[in-house]
């Protein structure tokens, strides 16, 4: 399969995992609301347990996959990270979502499940409900940004158009994401090791390709030196 096919597969995977991330965030929000509004301890415990399963076994792996494919597509195509306002906005929202999801929402779910298992009336706090709803809205906003592409180019878009990464990078990204989701499903928790590796490779490739474009070609240097010698 050629470079374009692998790049298109990476775009497809980014779309699928982003939609999955939003759908699972909606499921998580629904379970939290059910747990907060029921008086049945069994339903409350079940809702908390299922919310925890959805978060660790599905939502987190899909969020990692969406972020990884998005970063590779930015690093490995002419879109870049800072050349277009819509890409920059998506990148900023993704970083914020991952941090809020890991350090706020997931931590809150752990406390909720522990309280429900102890027989306490476990109720998801309002900030957790709001945070989950905001996550859904943010993913929907990112989808809108991808379709409309508003804002045009940023002041950092000057210079030559970035090159497109080789096909093997996109192929490795597809394999890494599928592998991480498979592993996460088996172990019941997010394990984005392969995705982190391919993101590091993509960022390294982007840095080296940027340096190579800024460095004058060898033939250009020879021509310039020859002209200097003739002038003398």
Describe the structure.
The protein is an all-alpha fold. Helices cover 79% and strands 0% of the residues. It has 7 helices and no strands.
Order of helices and strands: HHHHHHH
Terminal CA distance reads 54 Å
Largest sheet: none
Strand content: under 5%
Structural class by secondary-structure content: mainly alpha
| CA-atom Rg in angstroms | 23 Å
Number of helical elements: 7
Primary descriptors:
232 residues, single chain
Secondary structure layout:
Blueprint lengths: L2 H35 L3 H36 L8 H33 L8 H23 L18 H21 L5 H22 L3 H14 L1
Concise account of the structure shown:
The protein is mainly α and 232 residues long.
């Amino acid at each position: 399969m050629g470079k374009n096919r692998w790049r298109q597969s990476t775009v497809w995977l980014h779309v699928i995992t982003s939609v999955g991330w939003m759908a699972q965030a909606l499921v998580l929000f629904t379970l939290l609301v059910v747990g907060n509004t029921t008086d049945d301890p069994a339903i409350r415990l079940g809702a908390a347990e299922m919310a925890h399963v959805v978060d660790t076994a599905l939502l987190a792996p899909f969020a990692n996959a969406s972020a990884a494919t998005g970063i590779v597509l930015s690093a490995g195509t002419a879109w870049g990270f800072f050349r277009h306002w819509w890409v920059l906005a998506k990148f900023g929202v993704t970083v914020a979502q991952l941090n809020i999801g890991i350090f706020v929402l997931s931590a809150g779910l752990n406390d909720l499940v522990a309280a429900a298992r102890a027989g306490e009336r476990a109720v998801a706090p309002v900030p957790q409900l709001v945070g989950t709803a905001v996550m859904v809205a943010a993913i929907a906003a990112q989808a809108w940004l991808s379709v409309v592409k508003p804002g045009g180019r940023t002041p950092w878009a000057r210079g030559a158009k970035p090159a497109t990464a080789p096909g093997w990078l996109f192929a490795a990204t597809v394999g890494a994401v599928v592998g991480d989701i498979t592993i996460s499903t088996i172990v019941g928790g997010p394990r984005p090791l392969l995705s982190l590796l391919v993101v590091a490779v993509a960022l390294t490739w982007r840095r080296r390709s940027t340096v190579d474009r800024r460095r004058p070609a060898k033939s250009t240097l020879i021509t310039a030196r020859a002209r200097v010698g003739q002038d003398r």
